[in-house]
């Protein structure tokens, strides 16, 4: 009985517009995989701060080696499902400043931002900005710095010898 129903509808499917290829037009736009970036850098949808964000900023003076700066400039796009964070570096600009953004993967919310200044062939982190839990619950500075060190060491592979 089931086979009879399937076989009776098969000729109609062969004659349909979809099966004949009428809807299979060549793409006139750029394919999705190449639409955002032609470089090897990772692409993330922009983080737009909203009313639910409560960033906090502090100064931080950590010297970075040239190898660490090279590793920070390479973006990190997670490939496995269990990886929670992605990293994107902006710069260096004309002044030699670099900004490293750390986003939560699924919410695309920025969790951490490191300002990095380069002068005379040396680089150092000058400022850290992190997301707190709300207007009444503030995340301590030491926890944000520890989180930044963990991200840089474990995900990006930096040494960060001067970080405490």
Keyword list:
single chain, about 160 residues, alpha+beta, Alpha-D-Glucose-1,6-Bisphosphate, Chain A, domain 4, 4 helices, 5 strands
How do you describe this structure in short?
The chain is 25% helix and 26% strand. With 164 residues, the protein is α+β, with helices and mostly antiparallel strands.
Number of helices: 4
Largest sheet report = 5 strands, antiparallel
The low-confidence parts are 13-39
* Shape descriptor: globular
- Broad structural category: alpha+beta
| Order of helical and strand elements | HHEHEEEEH
Word description of this protein:
- The protein has 164 residues and is α+β, with helices and mostly antiparallel strands.
- It has a domain at 55-155: Alpha-D-Glucose-1,6-Bisphosphate, Chain A, domain 4.
- It is 25% helix and 26% strand.
- It is built from four helices and five strands; from the N terminus they run H-H-E-H-E-E-E-E-H.
- The protein has helices at residues 2-15, 17-20, 66-73, 141-155; strands spanning 55-64, 85-90, 98-104, 110-119, 122-131.
- It has a five-stranded antiparallel beta sheet with strand order 1-5-4-3-2.
- A hairpin with a 5-residue loop joins strand 3 and strand 4.
- The longest helix has 15 residues, at 141-155.
Write the SSE topology:
Layout: H1 2-15, H2 17-20, E1 55-64, H3 66-73, E2 85-90, E3 98-104, E4 110-119, E5 122-131, H4 141-155
Antiparallel strand pairs: 1-5, 2-3, 3-4, 4-5
